[in-house]
Amino acid sequence: MIKKIVMTGLLAAAGAANSATVTLYQNDFDAPATVASGVTAVLGGLTTLGSGGGLSGFSGNFLWNTATGNPAAGTTLTLSGLPTHSAVTISYRFSYVDSWDSTNGSPAPDFFTMTLDGNTILQITCNNASGTVCDQGAGFLAQGNVFSTGWPDATRDVNESAAHAANSLTLELFAGGRGWQGGGDESWALDSLKITAEVGSTNTVPEPSALALIGLGLAGLVARRRRL
């Protein structure tokens, strides 16, 4: 039984060494996006560019969605031809622009939503204009910098991971809610959009270093058995 447990652990460690993080897509909106070899990327929906450093933590060009309607027209990113992988991570700098009202504000609430292949993986709000709730996140930068109008803005970094193994993905970003007005009154912006994938498999042939580790483990088992 001990031998089986040790061998399982050694093989798992050997296979894990073959996993890696690969950047599938990266876009700072100042230059053409960087896309991994073999991957096709289509950025669609509302993709208006803003510019300047008026938003805290923003510089150069950034994507600025000022769509009207409720929910407002979103921005989408579709990636196809993905390598074999087990999870993806989506990260970007985000700003609630202008008069956002949180869940207990009026009119309220205003929500920003991110979906992956139609499944919601992030929904956040902030109280730039009314309410007391702001989903600042671990990467919160500031609330109060003025951009475009006299309303304050709140800026945070987003970093969300999800299990994913399909050979394509569709990311959708949009705003809405019972209090959403959109356009020049409320909007959102993002910069430094990046999507990475965990590639590789634990069911692979071990690397030479891992084989050496297995050999040492077996030698230890043999020595222990001789002592018994």
CATH architecture: Sandwich
DSSP strand content: 35-45%
For the secondary structure, the number of strands is 13
| CATH topology category name | Jelly Rolls
The H-and-E topology, N to C, reads as HEEEEEEEEEEEEEH
Mean pLDDT: 83
CATH superfamily descriptor? Galactose-binding domain-like
Task: Supply the number of structural domains.
Answer: 1
Main beta-sheet strand count, sense and barrel state: 8 strands, antiparallel
Give a written overview of the molecule:
The protein has 228 residues and is α+β, with helices and mostly antiparallel strands. It has a single domain, classed as Sandwich (Jelly Rolls), CATH 2.60.120.260. The chain is 15% helix and 43% strand. The chain contains 2 helices and 13 strands. The strands form 2 sheets. Strands 1, 2, 4, 5, 7, 10, 11 and 13 form an 8-stranded antiparallel β-sheet that branches. Helix 1 packs antiparallel against helix 2. The radius of gyration is 23 Å and the shape is globular.
